[in-house]
Amino acid sequence: MIKRKKANEIVLFSYPAFVQELEHLADPAYRKFDLGIMKTQYYFYGVSTPKLKKMATAIFKTGCLPFLEYAEENGFDSYEQLMIFGLLLGKMKDGEELEEHIPYFLEAVDNWAICDQTASAMRFFSKNREEYLDFIYACLEDDRPYVRRFAFSCLIFQFKTVEYAGPALAAALENQESLLCVSSAKAWLFQTFYTIVPEEVRLALFQGIANGQMIGLPDEKTKKRTLQKMRDSLRVSNEDKQLYFRG
């Protein structure tokens, strides 16, 4: 049990009660399905993402520091615990607080699902893009592949603007690795930015130019994955699919 005073109130966090709630919400069929498409070193109860988001909202409203500090002091025991940790980071509105806790998340994250859900929640980045672009660049240089995945996911969710299209596309070209968790994120980035700057994306994909610089063509596996994503996308016109992405 962890106690912390906040505004004359005692905030309680009981890890056994948290586990009991996960066990109550677990869905064996969902667990089986998700483990077929997602690998993790952590135990997976099988709680759906919408339910985890509701849990994160409830924890945040009552004060999330006890939850965060428990994980930081004791480590992560489950996929769900780490997912909620990431979702709580996404709800923060104070930069210093976020920067204090996000290293624990980056050290622990080990799968694409938590990377992407957390990145989609990081609204503080979208409100402070210029301030956090260097942080994203640092993550792209990190030795841990899922930290690099997280960085590309943040570019997709929080930096999807015409202004930041050049830096995002340049980052995708500069990274030449074909590792699936990173390469698939780069392909997703190209496809996502195509909806707002199609000419810039074609220039990057087929000529290796982004942000006004000749950088080099994307690696072959990423290019193939990008072409497939373009063909599968409902947001890319049939005309463009025939002209540019036939494969």
Task: Give the gist of this structure.
This protein is mostly helical and about 250 residues long. It has helices spanning about 15-25, 30-35, 50-60, 65-75, 80-90, 95-110, 110-120, 125, 130-140, 145-160, 160-175, 180-195, 200-205, 220-230, 240-245, and strands spanning about 1-5, 10-15, 210, 215.
Descriptive labels:
single chain; 247 residues; mainly alpha; 2 domains; two-stranded antiparallel ribbon; 15 helices; 4 strands; globular; disordered N terminus
Explain what you see:
This protein has two domains: 121 residues, no CATH class; 120 residues, no CATH class. Helix 7 packs parallel to helix 10 and helix 11 packs antiparallel against helix 12. It contains 15 helices and four strands. With 247 residues, it is mainly alpha-helical. The N and C termini lie far apart (57 Å). The protein has a two-stranded antiparallel ribbon with strand order 1-2. Strands 3-4 form a two-stranded antiparallel sheet. 69% of the residues lie in helices and 5% in strands. Strand 3 and strand 4 form a beta hairpin.
